[in-house]
Amino acid sequence: MERQGLDMKVSALVNDTVGTLAGGRYMDNDVVAAIILGTGTNAAYVEHANAIPKWTGLLPKSGNMVINTEWGSFKSDKLPLSEYDKALDFESLNPGEQIYEKLISGMYLGEIVRRILLKLAHDAALFGDVVPAKLEMPFV
């Protein structure tokens, strides 16, 4: 900001999901949740503060708190992982982490589709006798 000559001071930094929820509630106080489905994924929701067992501080005046779920990092044996999901996770920069995000977010869906098309190209001649070279390149 300084380099751009902007006379500003940062007084708050907000997670995109929490910011989306705040913006929604600003427009309509009945908004209770926000979901990000983009490069990554996350959700936030409004909860009654007295319903949060971990909260030991003073209750906010509104009686509500925002819960940022960071659900992209959710992992469970119950999530249906295909062979493509497992391979992508294993070869990723963070194996075993952000499993839900790898299943549904834009950062990974293209790579999952590329892997499926590559298998079909090899096993079922999807593109005839020639497998397109770019299909062999991860994350293209």
TrEMBL record:
Q: Which InterPro entries match?
A: ATPase_NBD (IPR043129), Hexokinase (IPR001312), Hexokinase_C (IPR022673)
Q: Does the keyword Transcription apply?
A: no
Q: Which UniProt keywords apply?
A: ATP-binding, Glycolysis, Kinase, Nucleotide-binding, Transferase
Keyword hit for rRNA-binding: no
Query: Per the record, what are the reactions this protein catalyses?
Result: D-fructose + ATP = D-fructose 6-phosphate + ADP + H(+)
The Hexokinase C-terminal domain, residue ranges: 33-139
- GO terms for cellular component: cytosol; mitochondrion
Show the coiled coil region(s).
none
Pathway the protein contributes to = Carbohydrate metabolism; hexose metabolism; Carbohydrate degradation
Q: Name one GO molecular function term.
A: D-glucose binding
* Biological process, per Gene Ontology: glucose metabolic process; glycolytic process; intracellular glucose homeostasis
Q: What is its EC number?
A: 2.7.1.-
Give the protein family: Belongs to the hexokinase family.
Q: Which protein is depicted?
A: Phosphotransferase
Q: Which organism is it from?
A: Aegilops tauschii subsp. strangulata (Goatgrass)
